[in-house]
Every structure is written in C-alpha cells, then in structure tokens.
Amino acid sequence: MNPDSQDTMLAGLKVIDCGENVSAPYAAKLMGDLGAEVIKVEPPGVGDIARSRGPFARDHEGDRECSGLFLALNTSKRGVTIDLDNPEGRSVFDRLIKHADVLIHNYPPLRAKSLGLDYERLSQVNDQLIVTQITVYGATGPKADWMAHNLNGVAAGGWLYMSPGYSKDMELPPLKTFGQQGDFQGGIHGALATMGALFARRAIGRGQLVDVSIQEAIAAALELGFVKWTYNGEISHRCGTLGPSAPYGILRCKDGLLHFLILEDAHWKGLVKIMGSPEWTSWDLFNTGRDRALNQDVLEMQIEEWLKDYTMDEVYQMARRERLPIAPVADLNQLLKMDQLKERGYFTELDHPAAGRLTYAGAPYKLSTRAWALRRPAPLLGQHNREVLAELGIDNDEMVRLEKAGAI
C-alpha cells in the first residue's frame, strides 16, 4: 500500500481535520480513505479527546496512542499539533488553510469563532475554502451554541423514543443505541455535503460554509415516522404498533438470536412446516394473522420452546429452503468470521507504531476503478509536525521557537 499513490478517487484534494471525538474526524476519514490528503490538527499535549476513550489496544490500557476509537477514526491522515488559542499557533494554522480545499470541525459557533475557525474569517484567508461544521443542533437557531453530545442528538432527533425496537412495555424507558451512532450519522452527512460543495465550487468559483445538524440527520432517517403522524396522527415509538401478523421480532434459539418477520399466511404455513406442524399451531389463538398478532406473547413462547433445540444456522437454512424472512442476529465475533465479508475483503489489517497490527472495518462499497484503502495508520500525537511545517516553508529554527512558545 502506497500512501502517496495517485490512483485514488480524491487524489489532489487537501482536507484539514480540526475536529475531535467522532463526527468531524469520521467525515475526514471517509475522504482520506478515498485518497484525499488529510491533515489532523490536535491541541499540543493532550490531543483529540478521543485518545482518552477506550477500549484500548491489548496491553495498552490508558495509552493515548492506542485508543481503539481514535485509531479507527483517524486512518489515512497525517497528524500535527497546533494550539489555536495561541496567536503564533493560529498563524501557522492559517498557512495550512491557504493551501487547503476543505476544513472540517465540530465546534459550536461561539467556540469555533474563539478558535478562529469561523467561515467569515477563514474565507478571508482562502476564498476557495469549504468549511464543514458538524454540530448537534446546527450553526443557526436558538440552540446553535448549546453544548451537546451524541445523546442529545439522538434524543432531539426522535430516534431515542423509538429505541429499542420491539420493546414490550412503554413503561420501560428508552435505551440509547450502542456507541455514538448519531455522531457517525453526522460524519456521513458531513462528508456527502462537503463533496457537493466541492462540485458547487466549480460553478460559483468560491468555497462556502457547510452547516450539518446531527439532530436533523437523525430526524431524516426515521423511516415512516413523519408519514404515520401526517396521515394517521400516530406517533411511532419503541413498542411499535400491532402488525398484521406474527411472529414479528427477535427470538432466542440454542446459540443466539433470530429475527422473524412472518407477515403473510404463506410465511406462517412455511414456519409451521419447518417446525414439524406441532399441535399447538392449530389452536384458535393462531388461526389468522390478526389472531397471531393479538396473541404474540403466547406464540413466541411456543416458538422459542421449539427453537431451543436448534442453532441459528440450522434454523436459517431451514427457513431459506421455505423462503421465509428469518435471519440470524450476528454479534461482533460472528461478524468478524462471516464468509460473505471475508470474501469481499471487508476487514483490513493495518500496522500501527504503538498499537501494533489490528483489524479495521473497511468500506461498505467496491469501486471498479480508483482504489479505496486505509492509506496509513492513525498518527501519533504530533507525528508529522516537522514534515508538514517544512512543507509550509518553516525551517528547523522556527519550529524549535514555535515549540518553545507552545504554539505547536
């Protein structure tokens, strides 16, 4: 793998990642893995807050160079340290910006302005620059400057009220999805909107501000939530609504979980067949799809009694033969071993100077031309200071002075 290869989708594009934690670094990583030259800017001394987040690589607990989150989010980047609160540090940063196409960060407007990251100022430094700002509530409106986190975004966007799906009791509280899915959604939308702005630059001849709201990114992905309310006055929630048939949900078998989506009579007949047509399937409780939906609790107990003697794969293979919508619910260990992902080369191994050789998630797509790759491991804190600053025309004596001044 040659990190300087020009055989890439975004070769020649220069991106500055000045974000922390998840959303902005993820957006920049997506572009870096497609070949953009990405420079990660971190505060001297402590770096990105993601460096303190576990889990850490084996035998490196608490090592800020070995945070799994940071390692995953910062592949394909070079790393520098610049103190944006330091006037001399900001001067160095402006020299970076003069030669950049894109700046991505996730600071709210007031904090961004205090760091010199506001579009109004940066557009004076480089009028071709696209500034992508990813925040929970967006850069305008009454909550623009509120401090907020992933949990605020998924709650304000409506997702939290609908999680976990298939909850049995509305009295049970909502549960947040694992990790920081809201921030990842913000990062995906940020990368997509940034690419749109790059195309627009060709037409309008200048850059622009891309303002991404995580709340709105979540609200946009609520499937039928808005439609149900608009047409039926019905609020979608984590318990769902009574469907046309059952079983509909997640059931336990001998070695794991299976998702059932038995909505049609033909599906029910196929399920009865693979279960060996037990006597209980003829009970009046289960005569019609509506009956099965109304009596789903009893139905699930009966099916799980049968499932306890079979593995996930055994049930899945029987279901496939009858064309039934039943699928295994894979845990992460099973995901890593999945033949389909192995055949497509989804997982990628990469060496890191501190964390060692690790397995990384790949791209969920294939390109027939122009290669996707993890072009380099996440940078050590300040690893490329001298390399990048030399490219800006800063000599060794000046670097030493900037280091002593705490600017880099």
What does this structure look like?
It is a single chain. The chain is α/β, with parallel strands linked by helices and 408 residues long. Helices cover 37% and strands 13% of the residues. The protein is built from 17 helices and eleven strands. It has helices at residues 23-32, 68-73, 87-98, 109-114, 119-125, 150-156, 181-204, 214-219, 225-232, 265-274, 289-294, 296-307, 312-321, 332-336, 339-343, 385-391, 396-404; strands spanning 14-17, 37-42, 77-81, 102-105, 130-135, 209-213, 248-252, 257-261, 326-329, 348-352, 356-360. A hairpin with a 3-residue loop joins strand 10 (348-352) and strand 11 (356-360). The two termini are 30 Å apart.
Short description:
With 408 residues, this protein is α/β, with parallel strands linked by helices. The protein has 17 helices and eleven strands.
General form: elongated
Q: Roughly how many Å is the radius of gyration?
A: 26 Å
Order of helices and strands: EHEHEHEHHEHHEHHEEHHHHEHHEEHH
User: What is the tally of helical segments?
Assistant: 17
Task: Work out the strand percent.
Answer: 5-15%
Q: Would you identify the regions where 5 or more consecutive residues have pLDDT less than 50? A: none
* Number of E-state strands: 11
Helix share bin: 25-40%
Specify the biggest β-sheet.
6 strands, parallel
Give the helix/strand class.
Answer: alpha/beta
